Amino acid sequence: MLILPAIDILSGNCVRLFQGDYNKETVYSDTPEKMGRQWENAGAKYIHLVDLDGAKQGKPVNVSAIEKICSTLSIPCELGGGIRTIEDAKIVFEAGVSRIILGTAACDNDSLVAELIQKYDAEKIVIGIDAKDGIVAVKGWLEDSGIDALDLACTLAGQGVKRFIYTDIARDGALIGPNFKAITEFCDSVPQCKVIASGGVGCAEHVKTLEVMSSHKTNLEGVIIGKALYDGKIVLEDIL
User: I want to staple 138 with a disulfide (CB 3.0 to 4.6 A). Which of 10, 99, 104, 156 is the partner?
Assistant: First the structure.
């Protein structure tokens, strides 16, 4: 299992939101690149970045912070939040990220997904599907798209997408455990694609359960961990 520590950036700070609520913010560091170095030193092989301002405003916002993180680290970073156009993708790739995550854009503009795959290669384009009760949420989780998460995944897999991040919004930041049933269903819906689970991880046992799942859901590639790391519920060196 690939363990991806999350660094969520809001106004240049490393923060965590509770269930995506911008009014429920905890600031963990005003130097996100130092957090990145901490996770790299602990053994992380990949970092998951989110531009929270970008997700809300519909364009990359924290580009300088992202650039600083990528230039500080020797491990690759992926980035989601506000990437809605070819130009947005170009900006963040030039900032140093190794792959980008499309969420809202994947719902609103499937031709953009195909265009980005053609321009940059499928390995550099990840689709983030953020769902509540099986329905995709968009625009920084502020809007309900009305689109079924599994239907969207199947459609995009058919267009050449190779990797998804599946997040259960109701679990995110709550530390109550991932939605194992939903993750299983998601893996089953796109067996030809890699899946990274996100949302709800609160202890080492949750990660171990996902690892056991990955032995028979072989496309379950990894898990993103945020709040549990920052609150000390999980020690990255130990879990690795």
Answer: 104
